[in-house]
Amino acid sequence: KINLKKLGAKYAYTVDGQSRGEVETETFSADMMIVKFHGKNIHPGYAKNKMVNAVKVASRFIESLPKDHLSPETTEGKEGFVHCVSFTANEELATLKFIIRDFVTEKLKDYEDIVKDLAEKAALQFPGARAECAVKEQYRNMKYVLDQHPQVGENAIEAMKRLDIAPILSPIRGGTDGSRLSFMGLPCPNIFAGEHSFHSKLEWVAAQDMEMAVRVIVTIAQIWEERA
To answer: What is the CATH number for 9?
Structure first.
């Protein structure tokens, strides 16, 4: 955990972006949602009219999720989504973990209500089954904070212009440490680092862009000193 008082900074930058020139001041807002289905287990040889298989309840629920919208594989730009990232189950208990994402924080509740409603409807199709849902906040769109401190992003843009880099302003369809830091009181946009194909087996980084990111950070520091 970062001790901001000990760090002694008013502003910061993360270096965790993609293509050369990226300056990012906007991220998703994010929640984690846990959906559990409770069933009833008994020896399968004597299960008629007794067993309630949580695996089947959860499978029915997954099948009911939207197929042409509200998922990572069907959204882009400023569109949000719900995404099941893990599913563990046996006859008695099935547990599914979802990440809920949107750039507008208030929309998270709408998506969570959709998931909860589908979970409860799935459980009703299996007498004796029960659905349980819980939500945990993960991080929030750093734009809400950075809009109050425009000079932080502006100095990064100026640094890139001095290095003949064309700034690219784009929202992050994800989050960075800057999302958490900004809401902890340390406004913190993100700049490029040459990373590509995040979270895949083919993730790679452009070494020349990493080197350029270092030059950008040095130039940002010089600009802050000039404007102090």
So the answer is: 3.40.630.10
Total domains, the chain: 2
CB-count exposure of residue 202 (10 Å: 0-12, 13-18, 19+) = exposed
Domain of residue 55, CATH code: 3.30.70.360
pLDDT per residue, tens digit, the chain (228 aa), is 789 999 999 999 999 999 999 999 999 999 999 999 999 999 999 999 999 999 999 999 999 999 999 999 999 999 999 999 999 999 999 999 999 999 999 999 999 999 999 999 999 999 999 999 999 999 999 999 999 999 999 999 999 999 999 999 989 999 999 999 999 999 999 999 999 998 899 999 999 999 999 999 999 999 999 998
Same-domain check for residues 82 and 167: no
Residue 35 and residue 126 in one domain:
yes
- In 3D, which of 77, 44, 39, 78 has the Cα closest to residue 58? 39
